[in-house]
């Protein structure tokens, strides 16, 4: 009898695969969209302005990027065949491509050819990345906790300046940029989120960031910081017509440039998948990473058909998962649905655009700080009682923080090299992997020694003294 009952017992569902009530999935999914919206729309706004697009075309390009971000999110969260990590990942336009895309625009003799050149280069880079995913994923064995913890910490630290920039305002050239009003709104939003997290329970506690954004937006109205004009001027329906800006063009220089961006994007996505795997307690193995990279690269290859750019996993949403502890991938799939709807309905997209940038900045401090805290938790389990590991963390963090503390540090390097060097996540990740190989795999000499400081004297020196 007991054997029969054991056979009939339902198999427990992992929180990642859990389907929550529809209302909870919808509101939590909207919270993910709110957290990453500014990051999705910033690249098309910058690139579109560089290409000299009209206001109408700029709105179209932004909507197209929202639409393709939603499709890429579906690939990553729901997946099919061997495509998709099936983790709560939000995908969107990678900011790593902004600099090379503006460089491509500057090199184009005819500005009308610039976007088709970019789209053609992204297609090729995406297809090459898709083919390389099974090989690239094998690097997972070079990511022990000392490496993943360092990278997760760097992801959070690298994102914090974004939150600080949002807190100051949307336009650095504006007279009120960094004003007491903007910083006060950011501080109030941060305080609201903290109070909700401290004094509420259950579902309200889990959507504290979304409630903080709503409250912050309402509070900003008397200060004149909330602009509802995007809602009034937005169209109700708008479909991203394929190849709206012209058929893709294929130029070697542009393709090589975007292939470099693809390598950077795949490196960061690998780090993000490892980070999220730790947070949701489903560690990412080679198979998961390969499937996730296929989703990233396939999404990137398909994106230009609908006038979108290269897609990648959004690190800021990892912080939201870490803070809310809502680990269901279907919640993020709901968020992908919202992105698709916003791409098809500019009026809906404009509702998120109403949230003042300082309000986003206040919430961003919590989100991005949570990522860094998750990295520190991983480092605690990494064996920092070993001097080798302490040195790996110390040097990797220092190199990864260089682009944050000294943005012009690599100004003398070629633009192609700066695509990698200006990404603290990428440089820190590569440094951590290489140092881990050198110190923990090649000719290990003192890996059993416990120290309290990386500069502590070794046994040989101590004996002489």
From TrEMBL:
PROSITE patterns: XANTH_URACIL_PERMASE (PS01116). Pfam families: Xan_ur_permease. It is a multi-pass membrane protein. The chain crosses the membrane at residues 34-54, 60-81, 88-108, 114-136, 143-167, 179-196, 208-225, 245-264, 330-353, 359-379, 391-413, 419-439. GO terms for molecular function: xanthine transmembrane transporter activity. Its main location: membrane. It is found in: Cell membrane. InterPro entries: NCS2, UacT-like, Xan_ur_permease. GO terms for cellular component: plasma membrane. It comes from the Bacteria. Keywords: Cell membrane, Membrane, Transmembrane, Transmembrane helix, Transport. Signal peptide: none annotated. NCBIfam families: ncs2, NCS2_1, pbuX. Belongs to the nucleobase:cation symporter-2 (NCS2) (TC 2.A.40) family. This is Xanthine permease. The lineage of its organism: Bacteria, Bacillati, Actinomycetota, Actinomycetes, Kitasatosporales.
């Amino acid at each position: 009898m007991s054997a029969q009952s054991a056979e009939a017992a339902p198999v427990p569902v992992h929180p990642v695969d859990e389907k929550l009530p529809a209302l909870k999935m919808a509101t939590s999914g909207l919270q993910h969209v709110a957290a990453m919206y500014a990051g999705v729309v910033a690249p098309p706004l910058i690139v579109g302005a560089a290409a000299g697009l009209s206001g109408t075309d700029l709105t179209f390009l932004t909507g197209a990027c929202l639409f393709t971000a939603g499709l890429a999110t579906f690939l990553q969260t729901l997946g099919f065949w061997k495509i998709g990590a099936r983790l709560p990942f939000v995908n969107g336009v990678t900011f790593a491509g902004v600099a090379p895309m503006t460089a491509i625009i500057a090199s184009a003799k005819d500005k009308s050819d610039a976007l088709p050149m970019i789209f053609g280069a992204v297609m090729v880079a995406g297809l090459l990345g898709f083919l390389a995913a099974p090989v690239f994923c094998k690097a997972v064995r070079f990511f022990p906790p000392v490496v993943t913890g360092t990278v997760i910490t760097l992801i959070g630290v690298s994102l914090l300046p974004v939150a600080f920039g949002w807190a100051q305002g949307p336009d650095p050239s504006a007279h009120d940029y960094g004003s007491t009003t903007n910083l006060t709104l950011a501080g109030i939003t941060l305080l609201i989120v903290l109070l909700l997290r401290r004094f509420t329970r259950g579902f309200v506690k889990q959507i504290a960031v979304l409630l903080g954004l709503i409250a912050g937006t309402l509070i900003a109205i008397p200060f004149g910081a909330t602009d509802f004009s995007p809602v009034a001027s937005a169209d109700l329906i708008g479909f991203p017509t394929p190849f709206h800006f012209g058929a893709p063009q294929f130029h070697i220089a542009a393709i090589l440039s975007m292939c470099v961006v693809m390598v950077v994007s795949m490196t960061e996505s690998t780090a993000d998948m490892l980070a999220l795997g730790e947070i949701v307690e489903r560690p990412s193995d080679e198979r998961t990473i390969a499937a996730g990279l296929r989703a990233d690269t396939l999404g990137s290859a398909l994106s230009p058909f609908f006038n979108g750019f290269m897609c990648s996993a959004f690190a800021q949403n990892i912080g939201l998962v870490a803070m809310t502890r809502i680990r269901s991938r279907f919640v993020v799939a709901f968020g992908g649905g919202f992105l698709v709807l916003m791409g098809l309905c500019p009026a809906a997209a404009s509702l998120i655009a109403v949230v003042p940038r300082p309000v986003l900045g206040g919430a961003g401090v919590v989100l991005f700080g949570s990522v860094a805290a998750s990295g520190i938790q991983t480092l605690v389990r990494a064996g920092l009682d070993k001097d080798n590991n302490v040195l790996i963390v110390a040097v990797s963090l220092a190199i990864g923080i260089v682009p944050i503390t000294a943005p012009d540090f690599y100004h003398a390097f070629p633009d192609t090299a700066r695509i990698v060097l200006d990404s603290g996540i990428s440089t820190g990740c590569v440094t951590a992997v290489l140092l881990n190989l050198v110190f923990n795999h090649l000719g290990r000499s003192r890996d059993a020694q416990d120290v309290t400081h990386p500069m502590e004297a070794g046994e040989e020196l101590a004996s002489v003294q």
